[in-house]
Amino acid sequence: MTRHLLSVADLDDTALRTVLDTAAEMHDVQRREVKKIPTLRGRTVINLFFEDSTRTRSSFEIAGKWMSADTINITGKGSSTSKGESLRDTVRTIAAMGVDAIVMRHQASGAAHQVAGWFDESGVRTSVVNAGDGTHEHPTQALLDAYTLERRLGSLEGKRVAIVGDVTHSRVFRSNVLSLPRLGAEVTVVAPPTLMPSGASAWASADGFTLGDDLDEVIDSGVDALMMLRVQRERMAGGYFPTAREYTVGYGLTRDRLAALTAANPEAVICHPGPMNRGLEIAADAADAASSLVLDQVSAGVAVRMSVLYHLLASGLPDEGGQA
C-alpha cells in the first residue's frame, strides 16, 4: 500500500484484498463492550472537510478514536480558507504541526492528489486520504461497498452488480467501477443518457463494466445487488431531467421495481451510499426493506476506515520506503 490513499487504483490486487481482510478483523471491535485498541496511540489524524458529511467524517473520526489516535475535525468554514488563505497554505500549516495523516474532502476534483503532490515534493511525511474529491473518486466508499457485499453475498466472483442513477456526478460510481470488477463482479452501470458521462463506452471497455439505460431490463435479468446513487442536485446547473417524477418513473427504485427485483432474485440486495433522497432515487419501502444493506454499509464504513488508517499509519509507513 502506498503512502497515500487517493484512488482505488493506488491499491494493487494484494493491497485491496489485505485492506478488506483487515476490515473484517477491525469489525470485531464494534461488538466489544469497550471499543478501544491501542493500535494508533501517539498518532494524530486531521479530518479536513470542505464539504458537508455525516457518514464519512463521523466514521473516520470513530475509526481513529477506536484505535487510540488523536483525531481532530476541521471544516472549511472553520479554517482560514474562509479568510482567503489558499488550500496550499492551509494544508502545509496543518502538516507543520506534525500530524500523521490528513483525511480530506474537497469540492474540487483532484484536490487530494494536489495536496499529496505538494507534500511529496517538499518532503512532508503526512499521509493523505481522499475522502471524496468533487466528482472524481471516493475510494473508501468503494472499499466499504465491496466489504459489505462480500459479507452478505460471499465471494463477488461472478456476482452481478448494477450501479444506477446520477453517474455523471458520482465519485462513488467512479471508485466502484475500479474495485468491483477486480474482485470478480460483473458490473452494469445504468443511467439516463443525460447523466451518463461522455466517453463512457471506452471507459467501460477499459475497466471491465457494461452500460445500460433500461433499469427494468437489468432488474429482470436477476442481479445480485442493486446500488442506487444519490441524485446530486447541488451539482446540477442545467436540466438533466425534466422533473423529479420523470426521473423516478424511469430510474428510481420504486415499490414495483422492488417487487420485480425480489421476484427475479429473492437473494438480491440493495445498496445506497447515502444520503438518500427518499421518493426520488429510492422508495421508502426499498430503503427499509430486509434486503437493504444501507445501514450495513454505515457499519462497514468504520471497519474499513480503521483498516485504511492502520495500513497507512501502523504498519511501517511512511518510514519504510512507501510499502506496507
Order of helices and strands: HEHEHEHEHEHEHEHEHHEHH
Major sheet: arrangement of strands: 7-6-5-8-9
Instruction: Bin the helical content.
Output: 25-40%
Number of helices: 12
Shape: globular
Number of domains: 2
CATH topology of the largest domain, what is it called? Rossmann fold
Report the mean per-residue pLDDT as an integer.
93
What's the end-to-end separation, in Å? Answer: 5 Å
Low-pLDDT stretches are: 316-324
Number of strands: 9
For the CA atoms, what is the radius of gyration?
20 Å
SSE class: alpha/beta
Strand content: 5-15%
Largest sheet: 5 strands, parallel
CATH-assigned homologous superfamily of the largest domain: Aspartate/ornithine carbamoyltransferase
Function: Catalyzes the condensation of carbamoyl phosphate and aspartate to form carbamoyl aspartate and inorganic phosphate, the committed step in the de novo pyrimidine nucleotide biosynthesis pathway.
Binding site for carbamoyl phosphate: 55-56, 105, 138, 141, 274-275
Keywords: Pyrimidine biosynthesis, Transferase
Subunit structure: Heterododecamer (2C3:3R2) of six catalytic PyrB chains organized as two trimers (C3), and six regulatory PyrI chains organized as three dimers (R2).
